Amino acid sequence: MTFILGIDPGSRITGYGIVRDSGRGCEYVASGCIRTGSGELHERLQIVYRGVREVIQIYHPVTMGIEKVFMARNADSALKLGQARGAAIVAVVEEGLDVSEYSATQVKQAIVGTGGASKEQVQMMVMHLLKLTQKPQIDASDALAIALCHAHTRSSLIPHGLNTARSRGGRLRL
């Protein structure tokens, strides 16, 4: 069984989701949001970094999927998002986890079947796939969707010997 961390980065709210991949499907483990408040950006980035490290230390995932930054209308927002994403990635890499990146379209396609799905459609499919009885917060459901996308991608690559990500120690990690 593999614990997979999904991260939906944000400079104000970073969603996280943990699923357990048994090889026959995924089960819900945990999800939530790291809320940074309205302090200075460097303080918020530190909260993201510490929050992600704490999640890793509690649940011990071995691999992580994170959403890629997309360029919207506001360049300043995209830069802040990229910095929050970087803080999360540094926390993950310091803990020795492998990192895989997915676009929002890839995640939506893997979970809903169409790259143009709404956040609500993704949330409903996450609930269905993980047999959840309550709606997770939207940022947490996005993170769970990323974790599920990563699990599906891993399971399709492993039988073909295509998953060759290396851990910090240089050993292969699947």
Q: Overview of this structure, please?
A:
The chain has helices at residues 41-59, 75-94, 104-111, 119-130, 138-157; strands at residues 2-8, 13-21, 26-35, 63-67, 98-102. It has 174 residues and is α/β, with parallel strands linked by helices. The N and C termini lie close together (11 Å). The chain has 5 helices and 5 strands. A 5-stranded mixed sheet has the order 3-2-1-4-5. Helix content is 45%, strand content 21%.
Number of helices: 5
Structural class assignment: alpha/beta
With strands numbered from the N-terminus, the spatial order across the biggest sheet is: 3-2-1-4-5
User: Could you say which overall geometry the principal axes of the C-alpha atoms support?
Assistant: globular
Count of DSSP E strands?
5
- Radius of gyration over C-alpha positions, nearest whole angstrom: 15 Å
Mind describing the biggest β-sheet?
5 strands, mixed
Mean pLDDT: 88
Order of helices and strands: EEEHEHEHHH
Provide the β-strand percentage band: 15-25%
- Gap from first CA to last CA: 11 Å
Q: Are there runs of 5+ residues with pLDDT below 50, and where?
A: 158-174
Helix-residue proportion: 40-55%
